[in-house]
Amino acid sequence: HHVAVDLALGHAPGGVVAADLRDVLAQERHLSGARVVAEDGGAVWCWGNGGAGALADNYYVNRATPVRAMGTAPMSGMRDIVAGSSRACAIDADGGLLCWGSGAYHALGNGSTISRSIATRVLDTDGVSPLNDVVMASLGAFHSCAVTDGGAAWCWGHNHQGQIGNWSGIDWPTPQRVSGAGGLGVLADVVSLAAG
What does the pLDDT average to over 75-88? Predict the structure, then answer.
């Protein structure tokens, strides 16, 4: 917690100063051995364990000081961030979901099991178009979930214990709607979700 306090005061490890991290800590999340923070302006910074690309800086190395997370460009305008085991995700201003780090069991939702060292868009069920209108996300050990505007619940990744909620028991490379009670229909009007 010492680092979080330093950041809140405008000081960061390794000499990164308030000019780089002004209005810091709208959000802070923890990965396995790494930290992810988002500024009020939506820039995302990561440091710590860079294994599996968890720092989104296009490398797979550890960093003792914050580095700016990258997608196709430095990430900015992010509304929220979430972190799980060896990966993290951010919701952009348009409701798109970008994830990076370990791709084990399809946990990044981009149709692949390859780990990514830069943020990549979570794809819709078709595996081509991006999942849109995301209002919240949650990451489990090797599965991920999101809620879209209107209350639809989506999950993807590891499913050996039914984590996806679609009665299949098989891993899913892209988001699938969470089934309703008894496998009938789909969950609707979801207001909160924890992947656990």
Answer: 91
